[in-house]
Amino acid sequence: VIFHDVDVLTEQLFPIVEAMQRHFSAGSGTYYSDSIFFLSVAMHRLMPKEITRIIQVDLDLKYKANIRDLFEEFDRFKEGAVIGIAREMQPVYRHTFWQYRRENPQTKVGEPPPDGLPGFNSGVLLLDLEAMRQSQLYNQLLEPAMVQKLTEKYHFKGHLGDQDFFTMIGMEHPELFHVLDCTWNRQLCTWWKDHGYNDVFDQYFQCEGEVKIYHGNCNTPIPDD
């Protein structure tokens, strides 16, 4: 077991993610401490080269399956994919991309699955660090100029850190992502159901199959066994 000092990580991380914090942080402006919410984005540059794969998870999870089975998802990545991640199960990005959707009425951006692009949830992440290091495309997307270009294209202003970044670049380059089944990140939060999206909520929230990981996001209670 290796413990990493958060302050040290943040110091290394800040120069890489400073530009994107302005677009994907809840606060106004860029806060040094906020950098830690973008750790996954640049994990491939911070971890030792001998570490090639990492599973990064939130704390508000309950496991119903062996984590080793999740690790096997790395073997299902298609060529070019660098990150494994499940879809967002609320219409949060239907809301965030409202202006782009209004200007592009035929778009799949923000639409529900299976045919739409609802965005991602970063509660469960498979980071193929070696693939991230090798991917010229992924590393180009970390550059401030590219972040600025895409946020302008999609009129994007988020508040969910790495999740917003992955969602935005996933709209442009879905080939970078291996989409995990919803049962690997069965989100339970229903906040958006009561905030203007009751009519379409279930299209995002439904998840068939035996749940492997429950995610009690927005402080939602997780069912007992």
UniProtKB/TrEMBL annotation:
Listed PANTHER family: XYLOSIDE XYLOSYLTRANSFERASE 1
Stated name of the protein: XXLT1 xylosyltransferase
Keyword Calcium: no
Cellular component per GO, a single term: endoplasmic reticulum membrane
UniProt cross-references to InterPro entries, sorted A to Z: Glyco_trans_8, Nucleotide-diphossugar_trans, XXLT1
Any single GO BP term: protein O-linked glycosylation via N-acetyl-galactosamine
One GO MF term attached to the UniProt entry: xylosyl alpha-1,3-xylosyltransferase activity
UniProt-listed Pfam families: Glyco_transf_8
Superkingdom as given in the UniProt entry: Eukaryota
Keyword terms, alphabetized: Transferase
Gene that encodes the chain: Xxylt1
Tagged with keyword Transferase: yes
